[in-house]
C-alpha cells in the first residue's frame, strides 16, 4: 500500500513497542473480582476497586495484551462528549439527569489527567480543547457554533470552514501510553492482569477461559466492541469499525500552511464524520469510518484496514488541508467500538448474581471508561452515590437484529449518511432528509 504500514494493532503501539502477553493464566483459580477485558474500562475498574479496598483479590483476564482493543487504537480524544443519546437518557432521568451525566464526564477529563500526573503516566496529555468545524450550510445549522469562519482560521485553517465551535473540556492523549500506564499502575498495586487468556463464557460465579476456570463472586464484563465474541452476547453490542491514518512528520512550513499552531483536537459536523489530532511528534492522526461492520460481528484482523479506506482518509485530509496534497502516510489501522441498539452506553451490576458490565460508548469511550470504572466500583461495593444515580446506570436496551439483517442495515445506514453528506456538500441549506431517515433506521 505504497509503503504505508497497515495494521500491527496501531501506530500508537508501534511507537511504544507492541508488548507480548504476560502472566498468562495457568489452570483453575479463584479471586474476589474477575474482570473480563484488559482495556481501559476493566483497568479503571480494577484501579478504583483496589484503591477503595486493597484487600480485594482482583484478576483481569485479557485475550491478547492490555490495551489491544480500542483503548490502544483510538484517536486520542479525552473528551467530555456524551457517550450516547441525550434524548435516550432524558427519557429515564429528564434533562437534569442528562446534565448530571455531562458534568460527570467533564469532571472525568480532569480525573484522568490527575491520575496520570499522580501516578507518573506520561501519555503526551495536553488539555487543549477540541475545535469542531462546519464546512457546509447544513453542517453550520446543526453545529450552531459561536466561531465565524475567520475565527476558525485563527485556530486552524480548514478549507471551506464556514463556522466552528470550541469546547475546552478535551485533552490530546497518546492512547497506548495511557492504557499501558494504567496497566502498570494496577499491576504495581497487586492486581493480576492475565494476558493471553481468552475468555469463552461468563456466568454467575465463574469465568471460563481457554486456560482454566476462574471462580469469583463478582464478574465484570468489560469487552466493549469485543463483546460479540463472548458466548451468548453476539447481538448485545454491534462491533462498529473505525479506521485511522497518521502522516509522516510535518515540516515547519507545512504546519504554518495549515495554521495548526496549537494542540487542539479537530472534528467536523459531517454525518460520516472525521476526527484528528496533532501528535506530540508533529504528525496528523486522522480517523473516520471505513467498512463500518463485518458480517457476523467479526471483530479483528490485527488492525488491518482496506486500501480504499486509507485512500478515503487521505482524501479527507487533503480536502481539509489542500497544502498537504502529496504528504506521505506512515501507518493505517482500524479497530472496533461497541454500539448498543439505541446508541447509548450503560453501566450495570446485579448483586444477586454478581454479574456486571460497562461499555457501549459509541466512540466516546476514552473519558467514559474512567467514569464507568468508578461507577462499577461503587456498584460492586454497594455504595449509593451520585455516580450510581447517573442515567446510564442500569440502562437496558434490546439486542441487535440477527444476520443478515444486521449487516444489511448497518451498511445501508452508512450509505445513507454518505449520500446525505454529498447532498449537503452540494449546497443543501438544511440537514438532508436522507440523514433523518438514517437516524430513524439507526434507532438514534
In short, what is this structure?
With 444 residues, the protein is of the alpha/beta class. It has helices at 11-16, 40-52, 86-119, 137-143, 149-155, 175-188, 252-258, 307-320, 365-380, 405-425, 433-442, and strands at residues 5-6, 29-30, 33-36, 58-61, 77-79, 130-134, 147-148, 163-167, 170-172, 192-194, 199-203, 206-209, 212-215, 218-221, 238-247, 265-268, 274-278, 284-288, 329-339, 346-350, 355-359. It is globular, with a radius of gyration of 21 Å.
Widest beta sheet: strand line-up: 1-19-15-18-17-16-6-8-7
Taking Cα atoms only, what radius of gyration do you get, to the nearest Å?
21 Å
What's the end-to-end separation, in Å? Answer: 36 Å
Q: How would you sum up the global shape? A: globular
SS element count, helices = 11
Average predicted local confidence, pLDDT: 96
Low confidence ranges: none
Strand content: 15-25%
Main β-sheet description: 9 strands, mixed
Q: Helix content range of the residues, please?
A: 25-40%
State the secondary-structure class.
Answer: alpha/beta
The total strand number stands at 21
Domain FAD dependent oxidoreductase: 32-379
Pfam families: DAO (PF01266)
Protein name: FAD-dependent oxidoreductase
Amino acid at each position: 500500500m505504497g509503503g504505508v504500514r497497515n495494521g500491527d494493532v496501531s501506530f500508537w503501539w508501534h511507537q511504544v513497542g507492541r508488548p507480548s502477553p504476560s502472566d498468562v493464566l495457568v489452570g483453575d483459580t479463584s479471586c474476589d473480582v474477575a474482570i473480563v477485558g484488559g482495556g481501559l474500562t476493566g483497568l479503571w475498574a480494577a484501579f478504583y476497586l483496589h484503591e477503595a479496598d486493597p484487600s480485594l483479590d482482583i484478576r483481569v483476564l485479557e485475550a491478547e495484551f492490555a490495551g489491544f482493543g480500542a483503548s490502544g487504537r483510538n484517536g486520542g480524544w479525552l473528551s467530555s462528549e456524551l457517550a450516547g443519546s441525550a434524548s435516550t437518557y432524558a427519557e429515564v432521568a429528564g434533562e437534569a439527569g442528562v446534565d448530571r451525566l455531562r458534568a460527570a464526564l467533564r469532571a472525568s477529563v480532569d480525573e484522568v489527567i490527575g491520575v496520570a500526573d499522580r501516578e507518573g503516566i506520561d501519555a503526551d496529555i495536553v488539555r487543549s480543547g477540541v475545535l469542531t468545524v462546519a464546512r457546509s450550510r447544513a453542517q453550520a445549522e446543526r453545529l450552531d457554533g459561536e466561531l465565524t469562519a475567520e475565527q476558525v482560521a485563527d485556530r486552524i485553517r480548514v478549507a471551506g470552514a464556514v463556522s466552528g465551535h470550541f469546547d475546552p473540556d478535551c485533552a490530546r492523549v497518546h492512547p497506548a501510553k495511557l492504557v499501558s500506564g494504567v496497566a502498570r499502575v494496577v499491576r504495581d498495586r497487586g492486581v493480576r492482569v492475565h494476558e493471553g487468556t481468552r475468555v469463552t463464557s461468563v456466568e454467575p460465579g465463574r469465568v471460563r477461559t481457554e486456560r482454566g476456570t476462574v471462580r469469583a463472586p463478582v464478574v465484570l464484563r468489560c469487552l466493549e466492541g469485543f463483546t460479540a465474541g463472548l458466548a451468548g452476547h453476539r447481538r448485545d453490542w454491534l462491533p462498529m469499525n473505525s479506521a485511522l491514518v497518521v502522516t509522516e512528520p510535518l515540516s515547519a512550513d507545512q504546519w504554518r500552511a495549515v495554521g495548526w499552531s496549537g494542540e487542539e483536537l479537530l472534528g467536523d459536523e459531517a454525518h460520516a464524520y472525521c476526527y484528528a489530532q496533532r501528535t506530540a511528534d508533529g504528525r496528523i492522526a486522522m480517523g473516520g469510518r471505513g467498512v463500518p461492520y463485518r458480517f457476523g460481528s467479526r471483530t479483528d484482523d490485527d488492525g488491518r484496514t482496506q486500501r480504499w479506506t486509507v485512500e478515503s482518509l487521505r482524501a479527507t485530509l487533503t480536502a481539509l488541508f489542500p497544502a498537504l496534497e502529496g504528504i506521505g502516510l506512515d501507518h493505517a489501522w482500524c479497530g472496533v467500538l461497541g454500539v448498543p441498539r439505541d446508541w447509548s452506553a450503560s453501566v450495570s451490576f446485579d448483586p444477586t448474581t454478581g454479574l456486571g458490565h460497562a461499555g457501549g460508548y459509541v466512540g466516546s469511550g476514552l473519558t467514559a471508561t474512567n467514569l464507568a470504572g468508578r461507577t462499577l466500583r461503587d456498584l460492586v461495593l454497594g455504595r449509593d452515590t451520585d455516580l450510581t444515580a447517573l442515567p446510564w446506570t442500569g440502562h437496558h436496551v434490546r439486542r441487535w437484529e440477527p444476520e443478515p439483517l444486521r449487516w444489511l442495515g448497518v451498511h445501508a445506514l452508512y450509505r445513507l449518511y454518505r449520500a446525505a453528506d454529498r447532498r449537503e456538500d452540494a449546497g443543501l441549506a438544511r440537514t438532508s432528509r436522507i440523514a433523518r431517515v438514517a437516524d430513524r433506521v439507526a434507532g438514534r
